[in-house]
Amino acid sequence: MPTLSFHPPAGTARKIRLAARKRGIPMSRFLRETADRAAADETVRGLGRELEKLAIDSMAIVSLDHIRARAAATGLDKVPPPKITAVIKATRRARA
After folding, report:
1. In this structure, what DSSP letter does residue 78 have?
2. How far, in Å, CA of 28 to CA of 1, rounded?
3. pLDDT of 16
4. Containing H/E element for 34?
5. Is 41 helix (H, G, I), strand (E, B) or coil?
6. Measured between alpha carbons, how far is 58 from 52 in angstroms, rounded to an integer?
7. How confident is the model at residue 55 (pLDDT cuts 50, 70, 90)?
8. Residue 96 vs residues 28, 86, 90: alpha-carbon distances, Å
């Protein structure tokens, strides 16, 4: 079997690993199937696209829970909304 290799940037490699893990398949199989679809110029449609959206939504919920837990651990979950707004406005002014 022929072997192909490439060296993606760290961020891209992370995205590929996450996508393969999300689908529950080995990375080599994910890459092979993705390359096959790209070569055949197929797009993800119908149920496959809906499942992909659900997986992305699930990852967002897990990330948000993680952020909330970190905020609670550092005490940042008790910052009042007016103070948050003031910090955001000050940061935007500093960038402008």
Report:
1. G
2. 13
3. 84
4. helix 27-40
5. coil
6. 10
7. confident
8. 46, 15, 10
Structure tokens at 75: 């005490």
Side chain identity, residue 96: A
Burial readout 9-43 (b: 16 or more C-beta within 10 A, e: otherwise): eeeeeeeeeebbeeeeeeeeebbeeeeeeeeeeee
Q: From 56, 3, 55, select the one nearest 28 (Cα to Cα).
A: 3
Q: Which residues neighbour 6 within 8 Å (Cβ) at sequence distance 6 or greater?
A: none
pLDDT given for residue 92 in this prediction: 93
Model pLDDT for residues 18-51, shown as the tens digit of each residue = 888 998 999 888 888 887 777 776 566 666 677 7
In angstroms, the CA 93 to CA 5 distance is 46
pLDDT at 65 over 80: yes
